Amino acid sequence: MLSKPIKEMTILEKTNMAYDLMKDDDAVKGQAAQVETLLEKLKSEDITVAVIGQFKRGKSALANRILGDDVLPVGIVPITSAVTKVRYGKRQAEVHYENGVVEPVEFERLHEFISEQENSNNELGVQSVELKTPSKFLKNGLTFVDTPGVGSYHKNNTEVAYEHMKESDAVIFLLSVDSPINQIEIDFLKNTKEFAAKFYFAVNKIDVVSEAELKAYTDYCGMLLKQLMGKDDVRLFPVSAKTGQGIDDLKDAVLRDCKKNTREIMEASTAKKLADVINSAATQLDFYWSAMNLEYKELDKRFAAINKTLEDVRGKADACEGNFDVHLNEYKLMLSETVKDLFGMEYHYEIDTVRYGVIDMDREDFLKNVDDLCDDLTKTLDRILLYREENAYTVCHRINAINRLSRNLRRIRDSLTGERR
Fold this sequence. Notes:
single chain
C-alpha cells in the first residue's frame, strides 16, 4: 500500500518509487541504473549546464570565455567530436574511454581526442573528456559541458550531441548572427526541451554586425523562440566569444539561477528525465515480451548463438596475457551488444573504471570473473525469458510481476507528464 497518492508525491519520492520498482528486475536493470543516477544528482543538487547548438556557432570559444580559461580547443573546422565535462579543481585533464580506461593527458593534447580530424568517427573509442580548472564560474559545484555541434557532415557528432542533451539540467543554446535560426536548430531545440529545465539563448558573433542588424536578428529570433518554447519571457543574450562582449551578463544570469533556483531546476529536470527513462523501460519490457514469446525453435537458435559467443569469450580470456581489467570491460560491451542483436533487449553491465597504467586484477581473478560473467548471463536470460520453463506457477508469477511493474511505472509517468502539461 502506498502511504499517499502518487499525484501528491514529491519528485524525489516518485524517483525513489521508480527505482524501488525497477532495481530488482533484470529486464530493466539499465533503466534502474539511470534512475539511481537521477536520485544521486537530485539529492546532491549537482546541476549540469551544457552549451549546445549547431556546429561552428562558436560553442567551445564561448565556453572558454565563460570559464575564463582557454581549456577547450577551437579551430576553423568543426573541432568538438566528444562531450567535454568541466568541473572545479586543480587544472587537469582526463580522457574517459568506452572500455572504462581513464587516461590523464596534457591540455595541449586534447585535440587528439576530441577533434574530428584526428579522431575521425571516434576511432579511439572516447566516451568523454573530463577537465578541471579553478574557474570561479564552477566554484559552487556546477558541472559545465561542451558538446559536439549538430548538423555537420560528421553524423557521429550529431548523435553524441543528441544523446548527451538528455543529461543537461540547464542549457546555453547558442545561435549566431551569421545564420538565421534554421530547421536543424529548431529540431534540436524541440528535442532538448524534453530534458532540460532551463534555457539561456546566446547570440554569438555580435562583433561582426551593426546595432541595427543585431536588433533585426534578435527581434526575429526572439519571436520565433517564444513560439517554440511556448512562453513570453524568453531572453536573448547577445555575446561575442571573440571580444568577450556580453559574456558577463550571460554568466551572471546562469550563476544567479543556479544559486537561487537550483532545487526548482533540478526537480523540473528530473521529472522530464524520469518520464523518459520510464518510457524507455516500457519499450524494454515490450522487447522482453516479444523475445519471451518467440517459438522454442527460434529461442533455441538464439540461445545457441549466445552460447557460441560465450565460448568465444572464454577462449579469448584463456589466450589473454595482460590488461585484464580492460578486456573484462570489453567482454561486457560485446555481450551486451550480442544480447541486443539477438533479442532486441538492452542488457546492462557496469563498466569498471580502469586507471591508466594501474593493474588491479591478476590472471586467476580475471578468468574467474569471465566465468562468472558468462554463467550469470546464461542464468539471467534463462530466468527472464522463461526459457524451457515448465513450472506453470513460475510462468504465471513472472507474467504477473511484469504486468504489475508496467502498470505502476505508467502511473508514475502519467503523474509526471500531467504536471508538465
